[in-house]
Write a structure and sequence with these properties.
Helix content is 44%, strand content 5%. It starts with a helix and ends with a helix. It has helices at 3-10, 16-21, 32-36, 55-89, 147-151, 159-164, 175-182, 205-218, 228-235, 255-269, 278-295, 304-320, 325-341, 355-379, 412-432, 439-451, 475-504, 517-537, 542-545, 549-568, 575-592, 601-621, 645-649, 725-730, 805-816; strands at 129-132, 138-141, 240-241, 247-249, 401-402, 408-409, 654-659, 690-692, 699-702, 708-711, 772-774, 790-794. A 4-stranded mixed beta sheet has the order 2-1-7-12, with no helix packed on it. A two-stranded antiparallel ribbon has the order 3-4. It is mainly alpha-helical. β5 and β6 form a beta hairpin. The longest helix is centred in the first third of the chain and has 35 residues, at 55-89. Among the domains are: 3-50, no CATH class; 58-98, no CATH class; 408-622 and 800-816.
């Protein structure tokens, strides 16, 4: 039989492999089935070995993959050993370590992207700093954390008292509301309570509108998750009032919107100059907001309003509790998860929702994304949201500015959203990328941030008043001007900080000749701009500026940059001007941050200032004994417990073990609120009478001689927990320098208009407490001395050398020894 006859005879049959595998064969050889399976060469007469599921090939593939991984690990071990051996012998890099490919042209195995610069690869694996309590409590801050955030890793003696002010049982709430507040954020499994329990705590309509105005003028300028039109058009009308303005019904208001309602009141109260205890009244409103959110568990009813309420809750903590960073961080995480449950990260235009709801969702998402991204940078922790998983569009600009030419400039919030998407998201990727990007990538990011356009009306002058730039007379616009400058410059300062540290610690007399000189100049320039611009804003709007601790936090980090430059490189061309600027900034920061700085930061800055003057004088006179820190003199600047505070402040990889003294009592601690009663309002005028209960148990504070001095008791919340009677009276002054103007003798107190002023339910029988009026006056007590928390500092045993920007910066602070 000739070949043609054989082919013709076989044409009607499937190939042998298709028959074996029971596959459909197109009978055009080689058939498509064999081509797809990679065995076209054997078609039509050949067949694969009869193995069930082709397990032999799969086993071979697994074996090869395992061998590949094992060899890759072995190669890296040998490369590291070779590099260590070369370093120990004093020779240069081995030739085999200077190439990225083998001689036979095969690319070496890699598990991910690496930097092109071998030096950069040494800063690619961060460990960070941990603070560990006796019972295993752990707190971490990473690479880009602000200097005062890093200071929270140090032991604090005020934690216990700061927690007490937020406990509902100390705020005079009835049992039902206290139980709801304590069940926040998930709520009760079977909630037996209703919105009627909240009615006695609603202020009159006029008071509500006044607090809402305070909220939108003092707090919503930076983050505005619930725009004024929504609050006034949808939430306020749902609360029914009688002819006297007293709330009588909440039937039309969803519990989550009731939570938003109380959060507007709570945040507005922080800025209320008409009452004498704004912080504590605000905390009660905050507890009521938590209780309202718990009426309908977010596990069962996740909605846009729940995300708004959670956002306003952590924004309130941001404004009221400087030490509440961990609470904020956890609430942001919960809020982000709820936002993802309802799909805020996806644009809702295609879901046929009402235009108002689409706008609400877009505003809320971008406010949350901006907050999440920025707080992740300043905390040194990865964010909850990633820009690569988002397609939500920007909302309509509600505050555009039309120029004389007819062009329209973006408003603050619209600019903020775009900056977060274009620049801040890239900064987040750069900072938290496990495989550190190259230095060229950092420089590209620097250019992107610097060239991102800012609308003319939002540009801040750096030195008082510049051509075409001046501080707006409107305090809200002025705050937004500096906020934009602060966000950009602090962003640049944080991403350059670790390279700045490497350059000034390189041993070179002039770090401007170092390969990271650009980072030295960038960090130095950003530090100067942060300080200089804030110094220009402060005299224009002092009352507003002193309340925004976010501004002063970045100013503190800028001071650390200037001081570190002088200490480490006193002979640098920039050192002389840096010392002058640092010295001026020290006095300015001491005055301006008095109301909101964390405890201990003034001492830390004072130590750094002393070291800066000593180092600069040593460089000028040629006396090395007082120059930059050396390991031989390291213990000179440690505190009594062996802990170098700036070692933590500037970012050394470390573990801090914390323990409290047995003699330490919670009530001996000073409270650490961001808004102490006497200071949150800045300049305060004379006071009228304040309501107090008929029964007035005496409270005490320490006099200058250390003896207890009787102080008047003011019952502000009805049946307040007995152990907090003295705490309320000492809250505003504990640990702070209270203004003489605020507590000058012979001033009278004004009646407090709080949540339970007129109809205050008691815990026993839900009766109402009728307050009497009295006149009291007393001088401000001296700050109370507190036992120091016991702590010790421990280096990690056998820790790896610094591997990323965080490690470099932390090691650098350790080197300062303050």
């Amino acid at each position: 039989m000739n070949p043609g006859e054989h082919s013709h005879e076989r044409r009607g049959l499937s190939c042998a492999e298709c028959r074996r595998s029971k596959l459909k064969c197109d009978r055009v050889f080689p058939c498509q089935s064999c081509i797809r399976r990679g065995c076209a060469k054997i078609c039509p007469d050949g067949a694969m070995p009869a193995t069930k599921g082709n397990k032999v090939l799969a086993a071979h593939a697994r074996k090869l993959a395992d061998q590949n991984k094992a060899q890759a690990v072995r190669i890296r071990e040998l490369e590291k050993a070779l590099a260590d051996a070369q370093t120990g012998s004093g020779g240069g890099p081995h030739p085999l370590l200077q190439t990225t490919s083998s001689s036979n042209g095969v690319t070496p195995v890699s598990e991910g992207p690496h930097s092109d610069d071998p030096t950069d690869t040494e800063v690619s694996k961060a460990i960070g700093s941990l603070s560990i309590g006796n019972d295993g409590q752990v707190k971490y801050h990473g690479e880009s954390a602000g200097s005062d955030y890093l200071q929270t890793l140090l032991p604090s003696e005020t934690d216990e008292m700061a927690r007490k002010i937020k406990d509902p049982k100390y705020l005079g709430l009835p049992f039902e509301l206290a139980e709801l507040a304590n069940s926040f954020p998930l709520g009760l499994r079977d909630c037996p309570y209703t919105k009627q329990h909240f009615i006695p705590f609603l202020p009159k309509r006029d008071q509500t509108l006044r607090l809402a105005d305070l909220y939108y003028s003092h707090a919503a300028w930076m983050y505005d998750p619930v725009v004024r039109e929504e609050f006034m058009g949808e939430i306020m009308p749902a609360v029914q009032y009688d002819v006297s303005g007293t709330a009588i019904s909440l039937d039309a208001l969803h519990p989550h919107r009731l939570s938003v309602f109380f959060m507007v009141l709570a945040t507005g109260t922080l800025f209320d100059d008409s009452i004498d205890s704004p912080t504590i009244v605000a905390e009660q409103y905050n507890a009521l907001a938590c209780a309202a959110l718990s009426l309908k568990s977010i596990l069962d009813e996740a909605n846009t309003t729940a995300v708004q309420a959670l956002f306003m809750l952590f924004h309130f903590v941001f404004l009221s509790d400087r030490a509440g960073n961990e609470r904020r961080w956890l609430l942001v995480g919960i809020c982000s998860r709820v936002a993802q449950i309802i799909g805020l990260q996806r644009d809702s235009a295609g879901w046929n929702l009402e235009l108002a709801e689409v706008q609400r969702r877009r505003i809320l998402f971008w406010e949350l994304f901006t907050w999440d991204a920025w707080t992740s940078v300043v905390n040194g922790r990865p964010p909850a949201m990633n820009i690569h998983n988002i397609d939500a569009r920007f909302p309509e600009d509600l505050d555009p500015t039309t120029k004389a030419s007819g062009d329209v400039d973006l408003g603050f919030h619209a600019w903020k959203f775009r900056y977060s998407a274009v620049c801040l998201s890239v900064s987040v990727d750069h900072v938290f990328n496990i495989r550190q990007s190259s230095y060229n990538a950092l420089q590209d990011l620097d250019v992107k941030i610097r060239t991102f356009p800012v609308p003319a009306q939002l540009q801040a002058p750096v030195e008082g008043s510049e051509a075409g730039r001046s501080w707006s007379p409107d305090p809200v616009r002025a705050m937004q001007q500096y906020c934009i400058l602060c966000e950009r410059e602090s962003n640049l300062m944080y991403i350059h900080r670790s390279y700045f540290a490497q350059a000034i610690r390189s041993g070179s007399v002039n770090p401007l000749t170092h390969k990271y000189a650009d980072s030295v100049v960038a960090a130095y320039r950003s530090a100067l701009r942060l300080i200089s611009s804030l110094r220009g804003l402060y005299p224009v709007h002092p009352a507003r500026t002193r309340r925004v601790w976010f501004f002063w936090s970045n100013c503190f980090s800028a001071c650390v940059i200037l001081g570190a430059l002088i200490v480490e490189a006193p002979a640098c061309d920039l050192a002389s001007n840096a010392l002058q600027e640092f010295n001026q900034a020290y006095g300015f920061w001491e005055e301006g941050s008095r109301l909101c700085r964390p405890p201990g930061t003034m001492t830390t800055l004072s130590k750094l200032r002393q070291r800066a003057f000593a180092a600069f004088e040593a460089a000028r006179t040629g006396n090395p004994s007082t120059g930059p820190v050396s390991s031989s003199r390291r213990t000179t600047y440690d505190n009594s417990n062996g802990l170098d505070e700036l070692e933590v402040l500037e970012g050394r990889k470390s573990v801090i073990a914390r323990s409290r003294s047995p003699s330490q009592s919670p009530l001996t601690h000073a409270a650490v609120p961001s808004f102490p009663e006497s200071q949150v309002r800045g300049e305060v005028g004379p006071h009228a009478n304040i309501a107090h209960a008929a029964a007035m148990p005496p409270t005490y504070a320490l006099s200058d001689a250390g003896l207890p001095v009787e102080r008047p008791y003011v019952n502000q919340f009805g049946d307040t927990h007995p152990s907090m009677i003295g705490f309320y009276q000492g809250y505003e002054s504990a640990g702070y320098d209270v203004s003489n103007e605020r507590y000058a003798p012979h001033q009278e107190y004004q009646q407090m208009a709080g949540p339970s002023m007129e109809r205050r339910p008691s815990l026993e029988g839900h009766g109402y407490v009728q307050a009497d009026l009295a006149h009291h006056s007393y001088a401000a007590p001296a700050p109370v001395a507190h036992p120091q928390a016991q702590y010790q500092y421990m280096h990690q045993v056998g820790a790896m050398p610094p591997r990323n920007q965080d490690e470099v910066w932390r090691n650098f602070v350790h080197h300062l020894d303050l």
